[in-house]
C-alpha cells in the first residue's frame, strides 16, 4: 500500500460516512430518536475528517514531490518553490475538486453545529439535501477525477505547474472562490429544507442571511484576486475581458447580490418567499453550471487549463438531477409557504429591493445569454460566433444609469411606506452633483453624452451613499459596500476613458515620447532563478519635472514545463499605473514594447476591498434591526 | 552574453514571432481599436490586441495595410468576416442568427418590469 492508496481509501470512507449521515437524518425525521442527532454529528465530523486526511496526504505528496502520484507528477516539479508546490494541489482539476469536497464537508458540519436553535426537521432536511450534493461530488471525484492515481514505473521528475499559475494572487484565488461557490450549496440545501418543512419565513431569512453574506463576500474576494492576476499576469493591461470563465464567476455573484437584498425583505416584511427560494436555487445552479462549463472544455477561454468531456457529462447529469429534485420540491411544497399578499407601496424599501432584483436579473440574463448563446448556436447550426466586450457594453452600459439613480435613493427608503416631503437637502444634492460632474467632465475633456450622464449618476450615488453614514441607526456594512461599488464604477469609468497606450518596436538605447514622458530603453540584462531564467529590459521614464522612474519588464522562460511568459512591469501611484511589457522579435536587435498609462487603477482594487470590508462588517455585525 | 543569446533562442524556439515584423512606428489608435475587437483564432480566448502570436502579428500587418488602402473600420471587419467567419469579430452584430441573443435579455427586462408593476399595482386594489 502506498500513501496514495490511503488517500483514496480515506475518500471511500468519507463517501460511506455520507451515506450513513443521509440514512440517519432520514431516520431521525421519521422516528424522532433524539440520540441519533449525536450520531449524525459524529458521522458529519468523520466525513470531514476523512476528507481532511486525503487532503493532507495529497498535500504531503506535493511537498515531498512524490511522483508516483499522477496528480503530483503532472502538476509539480522538484525545483518549484514550496509555496507553489502547495498551490499546485488545487491548480489542477483533481486537486481542486478535493478542495471543493473539503469546503463542502466543513460547511455542512459548521451549519449543523451553528443551527442548534432552528427547527429540528429543517436542520435534518438541510443535511439530507446537502448530503445529496456531497455524495454526488464524492462519486465524481472517485469515479472520474481521482487525485490518487498511481504511476509505475515512478518518474524521476514531474511535469511542472503552468507558469502563469505560479503567482501569489492566483495561488490563493481558488480557495477563496471555492468558499464562495460552496457556500451556495448550504443556501440551496437550506432553501429546499425550508420549503419542505414550511419554514420559509423571517426567522429562516435571518439565519440564512449569514450564509449569503459569507458566500457573497468570498465570491467578491475570489473575483477580485482573479482580476488582479489577469491584470499583471496576462500582460495586456486589462482586468476584465468578458471571458466565459470570468462570466461564470460573475453570474452567481449577481444572483447572490439579488438574493442578499431579497432575503432582507423576507426578514423584515415576510414578503417575497417564493422569489427567495428561486434565487437560492438559481444561485447554486449557476455555481455548478460554472464548474460544468469550465471543466467540460466546452468554453474557449484563457483560463481553461484542464478539461475532459466525460467529466462534463457527469456534471451535466448531476445538474439535471439537482434541477429535477428542486422543481419537484418547489411544486409539491409551494402551498406550504403561501404568503399573504401584503400591500407594497411604491415609495418603500420593498420597491427598492424589487428594482434591485429587476436589474440584477437583467444583468444576469445578459451575462448568461452572452455566455451560452454561442454554444447553443454552434450545436444547432454549427456556426461559430464570438460574443465579446462590444455586446456587453451595448446591453449593460445604458441600463447602468437608471440603476445607479435607483441605487442612490433606494437605501434611504423606509420599510412599508416612505413619505417624501420637500427637503432643502435635495437641492443641495442636485447642485453639488451637477457642480462635481461639470468639473470632472472638464478635467477629462469628455464630450460623450452617455459618459457625462454616467458620471452624473455615479457622483450622485457616491454622495448620497456617503451621506447615509451620518444617519442614525444605519447599516454600515451596507453603506460601505454601496460606497465601494460606487467608487469601483467611477474608477472603472475613469480608467477606461482616459487610459493611454503606445506600442512600438525599439532597440536598446532608443527612446520615445508618450504624452509628456520620455521613455528610454537603457539596456537588457539576464537573470537566473530556480525555476526560470529571464531577460529583463531596463527602462527609464522621465517626465516634465525631471523625475526618473525605472521600469523593468521581463520575459521569463520557465524550465518546467518550458513555457515563456511576459511579466509586466507596473509602477503604481495613487493616480495612475504605469504598465509596460516587452516581447522579443525575430530581428534580435528590436524589442516590442507596450507602454500604458492607466489612471485610477489602484482604486479599482481599493474599492472592491471596501465592498468586501462592508460584507465582512455585515457578517460580524450583531446589531440587526435597522430602520 | 552567451546566456542571454541562449535564452532568446529558447524563447524564439518555443514561442511566437515567426515572421519578421519589425516595423518601427507605433500602432495607431484605430489599429489598436480594431485589434481589440478581433479574436486571435489560434489562441485561447485572446484578442489580436492581447496576443503576440504569429497570427496576431500578421493580422496587425493586414489591418495596417487595409487602413492605408483607405478602408473604414467596418469595411475591414466585413472583409475579415467574409474570410474567417463571424467567429473572428467580438461584436456578434445584428442578424437573424443573433436576434435572440439581443432579444432574450431585453425580454427579461421587460417582463421583470411588468411583474413588479403588476405586483405593486395589484396589491393596492386588495
Plain-language structure description:
The complex is a heterodimer of chains A (627) and B (126). Chain A is α+β, with helices and mostly antiparallel strands and 627 residues long. Chain A folds into 3 domains: 1-166; 179-420, no CATH class; 500-602, no CATH class. Chain A is built from 17 helices and 10 strands. In chain A, β9 (576-584) and β10 form a beta hairpin. In chain A, α8 (202-233) packs antiparallel against α17 (601-620), α9 runs antiparallel to α10 and α9 runs antiparallel to α12 (349-381). In chain A, 51% of the residues are buried. The relative contact order of chain B is 0.09. Chain B contains 5 helices and no strands. Chain B has 126 residues and is an all-alpha fold. Mean pLDDT of chain B is 78; it is low at 15-23. Chain B folds into 2 domains: 2-91, Cytochrome C biogenesis protein (Helicase, Ruva Protein, domain 3), CATH 1.10.8; 93-126. Chain B has helices at 2-14, 29-36, 54-68, 73-84, 99-125. Chains A and B meet through α12, α13, β1, β3 and β4 of A and α1 and α5 of B.
Topology record:
The complex is a heterodimer of chains A (627) and B (126).
Chain A: H1 3-31, H2 34-63, H3 70-75, H4 82-88, H5 93-114, H6 120-144, H7 168-196, H8 202-233, H9 244-269, H10 273-296, H11 309-333, H12 349-381, H13 389-409, H14 424-444, H15 449-468, H16 476-498, E1 500-507, E2 511-514, E3 517-528, E4 532-542, E5 548-551, E6 554-558, E7 563-567, E8 569-572, E9 576-584, E10 590-599, H17 601-620
Antiparallel strand pairs in A: 1-10, 2-3, 3-4, 4-5, 4-6, 6-7, 8-9, 9-10
Helix pairs in contact in A: 1-2, 1-6, 2-5, 5-6, 5-7, 6-7, 6-11, 7-8, 7-10, 8-9, 8-17, 9-10, 9-12, 10-11, 12-13, 13-15, 14-15, 15-16, 16-17
Chain B: H1 2-14, H2 29-36, H3 54-68, H4 73-84, H5 99-125
